[in-house]
Specification:
alpha/beta; 5 strands; globular; homodimer; 12% strand; 51% helix; Rossmann fold; five-stranded parallel beta sheet; 207 residues
Chain lengths: 207, 207
């Protein structure tokens, strides 16, 4: 099917949001971005991707500073104006810029990275939240992180908290609140394919 | 299509949840309950329906009392044991009982009334949350309540607050939190028919 939409996927840790994003982009024949934006940001800034990877989707504490010195002016020479900002802020600002630029030119699916907030005024954006119950997320954490089942809940809660802090810090909004999304899907009972089916049905409906 | 599910619809005021419930029940060929439960509760208790209507989906403040005196024992003579409980609690307890009984025997769509919480352990229950942006809910409030547009926001906020209090009071959970539902649909861009299409697709998928 063709698509003129940009689909942002926010997701609880272990809910399968990444896999759904990959499969949805494939089905729609459009680009997929998740950690891919780190490589692009690294390339643009000259900073090593490994440095950005450590900072990915983690909040810094200097946004007020970055706002106060006018770093949200996206004109020429932008990346040279970031000076001594923490790497988390640099990454956020670069991803913000890359996302905005891409949204002018192409359709894509993007996971995380405050994309629903950054692209909120774009009329082509469809905002989806993917979540699941704690038990199924714990199972996924055990597989993915190769940790003992006894440690799974702690890991899920911690990773969610990091994402929530990141989202709240940069957006000023509460993470995972239904109101901020067009569609919220509980994947506890759904396979990746079934979730993708439901999202494509939604895209068909809104036309 | 056939259906072996019970579908609970929680809804923000003015989001079209009631209309979606009616149309969904019709499409699935199953019963629909909303205020209908009041008549049933009135019939069972001998209390005038008008009295219950005033108390509908409003919290009382005596649940602890009703728990402490064992009113959650649903044996014979239940309705005679409610004594001097506030009418809100009587209505809640009767609706609770009627809902549980119906869920043993038939499929239905039910709107509001903490149904998602009351029936949470029933494996056939599908829990849906319907919401929309403030502007579209205000438009609906103006039409439905026949009030001036300037008063619409206040009315919507107040009615939501009443529902949230009711839900929190009887369930102990936060109202409208995505985690409590299987599917949350923002109806700002959707007609009633489109919302019903999406829900029936979801029901098809989960089988």
């Amino acid at each position: 099917m063709s698509c003129d939409k940009i689909i942002t996927i926010s997701r609880q840790y272990g809910s399968g949001g990444h896999e759904i994003g990959v499969a949805l982009a494939k089905k729609l024949g459009i680009a997929f971005y998740d950690k891919e934006l780190i490589s692009l940001a690294a390339k643009e800034s000259g900073i090593a991707p490994e440095v950005f990877e450590q900072a990915d989707e983690k909040a810094a504490n200097s946004l007020l500073y970055s706002l106060s010195v006018g770093l949200y002016n996206y004109g020429n020479g932008f990346s040279n104006t970031m000076g001594d900002l923490p790497v988390n802020d640099k990454l956020y600002i670069l991803q913000h810029r890359i996302m905005k630029e891409k949204a002018e030119k192409e359709c894509f699916v993007i996971v995380g990275r405050c994309a629903d907030y950054i692209l909120r005024n774009n009329p082509n954006v469809v905002k989806i939240f993917i979540y699941a119950d704690m038990q199924s997320r714990m199972r996924r954490a055990v597989e993915r992180l190769e940790i003992a089942p006894a440690r799974a809940k702690q890991a899920v809660v911690k990773l969610d908290k990091t994402r929530a802090n990141y989202y709240s810090f940069y957006s000023g909004q509460k993470w995972g609140q239904a109101d901020n999304f067009d569609l919220c899907i509980n994947t506890t009972q759904l396979s990746t394919e079934q979730s993708v089916d439901l999202i494509t049905k939604y895209l068909e409906i809104i036309g």
